[in-house]
Write a structure and sequence with these properties.
The chain contains six helices and eleven strands. The protein has about 325 residues and is of the alpha+beta class. Strands 1, 2, 3, 4, 7, 8, 9, 10 and 11 form a nine-stranded mixed beta sheet that branches.
């Protein structure tokens, strides 16, 4: 096996691509599977936006997906899935339906329309083209974190949000990794400090190595929101190389939401659209139920770590009045 990069691309059988537009203050990230991957997901935020998310329910008949898409742009960003679908169709991918193929491309979007960047794009939104660009850029190996792709325009209650990732290996050698675009109504940091809520799960100083504060004040635990405008939603995925059923993938997505709730306070608010996908590339069998439960545990930990990395790696947008990044204050 290849060495671990602490990224989603540590999972064998997928590629990842970004499209980033700093003037737009938004972007798209796509994960393309080498072969259709078993997938599911769950929405726990109160204001979600998505494409083909209903088919991920374990009760629905479609078992596998060709790609997963994360995008900015709110409802306009749903066009990105069409761009990815066009790229997949171009190379002959998709579910065989009679004489044609239909690429299966579930997508989640976040709201970044009010971050101060130029959203005057004219008649048609740019997201279909950004989706196609991200698809064409998909590659294996290292990729950028922070204010790129779907995390370009993301914000939180305290600091600039961004795209984060983290990975782990189970005791039996199964790999699991998370990818998340952090655009929370709440905060990933504790009070006014540099500390992250996800600190107990950090590995090798991946988001500063600061640990937790010595104690928590009432202010640390008070409600911090970035406003009542619908500017929120944290979206992401966990992917493993294990062989899973669709029902197991669904459970994995639930466990990843536990990681979201450990890394963001508060999470799953009425104005959040928090959505998490889970997929399995099916390269390695599970020997017993305990192996799957360990993957569930790691889904929680890796997702929490990925959230913190997304904020830690973010940089402020190059627009007047842009939200300060964590690095602007604490780096």
């Amino acid at each position: 096996m290849t060495a671990m990069l602490n990224l989603l691309t540590d999972i064998e059988g997928l590629s990842l691509g970004h499209a980033t537009d700093l003037k737009l203050g938004s972007g798209v990230t796509v994960v393309v599977f080498d072969e259709p991957a078993t997938a599911s997901g769950i929405v726990l935020g109160g204001a979600p936006g998505g494409r083909d998310t209903a088919l991920l329910d374990p009760a629905m008949s479609v078992e596998k997906v060709d790609a997963l898409v994360l995008s900015g742009g709110s409802a306009f960003g749903l066009d990105a899935g069409g761009g990815v679908q066009a790229g997949l169709r171009e190379i002959g991918r998709g579910l065989q339906v009679g004489s044609t193929r239909v690429p299966i491309v579930p997508q989640a979007i976040l709201m970044d329309l009010l971050n101060g960047a130029n959203k005057d794009w004219g008649l048609h939104s740019p997201y279909r083209d950004l989706g196609y660009e991200a698809f064409k850029a998909a590659a294996k190996g290292p990729f950028a974190l922070g204010s790129v792709g779907a995390g370009t325009g993301a914000t939180t209650a305290t600091f600039k949000g961004g795209l984060g990732s983290a990975s782990a290996i189970s005791s039996k050698g199964h790999r699991i990794a998370a990818l998340v675009a952090v655009n929370a109504l709440g905060t990933a940091t504790i009070g006014d400090s540099a500390h992250f809520w996800a600190a107990p799960f950090e590995r090798e100083g991946e988001f500063g190595g600061l640990g937790l504060p010595a104690q928590f004040s009432n202010s640390d635990l008070s409600l911090r929101l970035k406003g009542m405008n619908l500017t929120a939603t944290t979206i992401g995925m966990v992917v493993t190389d294990a062989i899973l059923t669709k029902a197991q993938a669904h459970r994995l997505s639930i466990m990843a939401h536990d990681g979201l709730a450990r890394a963001i306070l508060p999470a799953h608010l009425p104005a959040d659209g928090d959505t998490v996908f889970a997929a399995a590339t099916g390269k390695m069998a599970l020997d017993n139920p305990a192996d799957f439960m360990e993957l569930c545990h790691l889904a929680t930990l890796t997702f929490a770590r990925a959230v913190a990395r997304g904020v830690y790696e973010a940089t402020a947008l190059p627009v007047p009045g842009a939200q300060m990044a964590w690095r602007d204050r604490f780096a």
